[in-house]
Design a protein that fits this description.
Blueprint: H1 8-26, E1 31-32, H2 34-41, H3 45-55, E2 59-60, E3 64-66, H4 67-78, E4 84-89, H5 93-101, E5 109-116, E6 125-126, E7 129-133, H6 137-143, E8 148-151, H7 155-167, E9 172-175, E10 188-191, H8 194-207, H9 211-218
Parallel strand pairs: 4-5, 4-8, 5-7, 8-9, 9-10
Antiparallel strand pairs: 1-3, 2-3, 6-7
Helix pairs in contact: 1-4, 2-3
The structure holds nicotinamide-adenine-dinucleotide.
């Protein structure tokens, strides 16, 4: 297996490649060029070639990539066969939507439990996912070997719930709240901020219009 130390930007793109290769595999495609991948995923072909070069000798010049081989390689690399159990804290509007979604497109990530402090929500079952009291956090995390949590509590409760998660042994937090969280250095936090994403999109549309939209604007 290639050196696992690949750049983070590359690591983030690997699941995209994996999902697309799964589709190609499903329709019986045997090989794919970096140009075709680039077109489908809207990623520069040179970036794709560079990403794959970190993984080793995966393709041949003029032939492209063998879909089966690449899929198997990425599956091993991403350990797609292993299911990662995740919990969600704060079963409100956003939390309920994420529980219902439950990453159904991915076979390897599953929200196994929700947690809340609202007595009206504790004991509920949302599309098969039970909602527990925060008092049972540690016990449920241990039962399902959970190391990753999604945080969808109000901003006012973000730091205190994070502290509880850290104490209960969580290692990674996907933070949907606007709070900047203080955590020990061994904890990894990823922030998801839809406002920032939307503003970035609008900025790009204004400043870097795509060829099609330039055409529409002109025509
Ligand atoms: P909500 O009020 O509907 O839900 C919050 C839930 O958290 C409630 O069920 C509440 O009982 C629970 N809760 C409160 N304190 C708790 C605690 N100490 N421990 C466990 N559970 C607790 O809120 P919402 O609209 O679902 O938003 C949730 C969070 O997501 C907010 O911080 C909001 O700002 C954020 N949000 C983020 C984005 C984004 O793009 N990142 C988008 C929308 C909302």
């Amino acid at each position: 297996m290639a050196d696992q130390k690949i750049p983070q930007v590359t690591a983030k793109r690997l699941p995209l490649y994996y999902r697309y290769l799964e589709k190609l595999h499903a329709i019986g495609k045997q090989r794919v060029s970096s140009a075709a991948l680039a077109e489908a995923l809207q990623i520069d072909p040179a970036t794709i070639r560079r990403d794959f070069s970190y993984l080793g000798e995966l393709g041949k010049k003029g032939y492209g990539y063998n879909v089966n081989y690449l899929l198997q390689f990425l599956r091993d690399f991403l350990r797609q066969d292993e299911v990662t159990n995740v919990v969600l804290i704060g079963v409100g509007n956003l939390g309920t939507a994420l529980l219902r979604y439950n990453f159904y497109r991915s076979h390897n990530t599953k929200i196994v439990a929700g947690f809340d402090i609202d007595e009206g929500k504790i004991g509920m079952d949302i599309d098969g996912v039970p909602v527990y009291s925060m008092n049972r956090l540690k016990e449920v995390l241990e039962l399902h070997s959970v190391e990753v949590a999604i945080l969808t509590v109000p901003v006012s409760a973000a730091q205190s719930t994070t502290d509880q998660l850290v104490n209960a042994g969580i290692r990674g937090i996907l933070n949907f709240t606007p709070a900047r969280l203080n955590v020990p250095s061994h904890i990894r936090i990823h922030h998801i901020d839809l406002t920032v994403e939307l503003q970035t999109l609008i900025y790009f549309l204004k400043n870097f219009p795509t060829n099609e939209s330039k055409g529409e604007q002109n025509g």
